[in-house]
Amino acid sequence: MRVCVLTDKPDHPLLVAAAAALTGARHRVTFLNPDAGTGSPSQPVAPDDLADVYLLKAHTRRALALARFLEGLGARVVNSAAATELCQDRIRIAAVAEDAGLPMPRTWTLDALSEALHGPELPESGYPLMVKSRHSRRADLVARVDGPAGLRALAAEWSDEPVVLQEFIANSGWDHKLWVIAGEVFAGVRPAAVGAPPDGARSAPLIRDLPRSWTRLALRTGDVFGLDVYGVDLLDREGAPVVVDINAFPGIRGQEGAPEALAALALRRPGKGPGRPVVSSGSRRR
After folding, report:
1. Candidates 3.40.50.20, 1.10.1040.10, 1.10.8.60, 2.60.40.2470; CATH matching 2-86
2. What is the pTM of this model?
3. Mean pLDDT calculated for residue range 66-91
4. Fewer Cβ neighbours under 10 Å: the N or C end of the chain?
5. pLDDT tens digits for 101-117?
6. Residues 6 or more apart in contact with residue 29 via CB below 8 angstroms
7. Which CATH topology does 106-167 take?
8. 58: Cβ–Cβ under 8 A, 6 or more apart, which residues?
9. Where are the domains of the chain?
10. Burial bucket for residue 67 (CB in 10 Å: 0-12, 13-18, 19+)
11. pLDDT tens digit string along 11-48?
């Protein structure tokens, strides 16, 4: 079987390990950087020489254009171009989540951050607010603003940036990261970037204590957004999970079993559903 990974980082540990698992099973793996060259994004692909599956790790405009071209030729692309593009737009994410009843912070949009200084009323929740780039990308804007002075300072640096304003979620101080590969859930915790309570010495929660409802929320999120490989960031708001970020095909570093799960997904025939969900914090549960 031929597997092609669309990425500009072929040395990423997840991809390297998944490729090793596939080549060890006598499958052929190639890497293609959609952003190399200046011609048409479809130029490096011969329509009569398609791979059996393309893993869409890159999220740039050229990568999405190439993925749509491949899908038009009948190729299998994971995740789909449409699902990947959806997860780049935080306004669309919020709208889809609201329609599906997923718990997310209330979200408002501005065509440019500078607009916040010239008339529009701030959300009723007031300060603090989370300010994020509307379009998710590397080195995008994600910041907490505690008052007008902070908003002015941020607008001076990011004046023309299309942004979303989000309700600030007071939380336990821990960011729960759930990564899903074809229904298999891997989990970890990181210190939350903002919102931690004053007692910063609190120990990290144990992954084994993660409520099943949180896992079910992560899996439902993938169903709603049409994703096979994705990450969901959850914050604990008074014991209930709130989705604060969704990422198509994240890095998933340091999770035992993740490369093998990705290799198995690449080999899965279209239409075959995922296996029984499994929560993992470095070792698989059977």
Report:
1. 3.40.50.20
2. 0.84
3. 95
4. C
5. 999 998 888 899 988 87
6. 2, 3, 4, 5, 19, 22, 23
7. Dna Ligase; domain 1 (3.30.1490)
8. 6, 7, 8, 33, 34, 35
9. 2-86, 106-167, 174-280
10. buried
11. 999 999 999 999 999 999 999 999 987 677 777 788 78
Burial of 2 (0-12, 13-18, 19+ CB in 10 A): middle
Contact (CB, 8 A) for 113 and 159: yes
242 near 172, Cβ under 8 Å? no
What's the average model confidence in pLDDT over 120-146?
Answer: 82
Contact call for residues 131 and 194 (beta carbons, < 8 A): no
Residues paired with 65 in a beta bridge:
none
Phi, psi of 31 (to 5 degrees): -120, 140
Taking each helix axis as running N to C, give the angle between helix 212-225 and helix 90-100, from 0 to 180 degrees, rounded to the nearest 10: 110
Hey, what amino acid is at 237? R
Residue 232: strand pairing partners: 178, 246
CATH of 174-280, one of 2.60.40.640, 3.40.50.1000, 3.30.470.20, 1.10.3300.10: 3.30.470.20
Q: Which two tokens stand for residue 208?
A: 């084994």
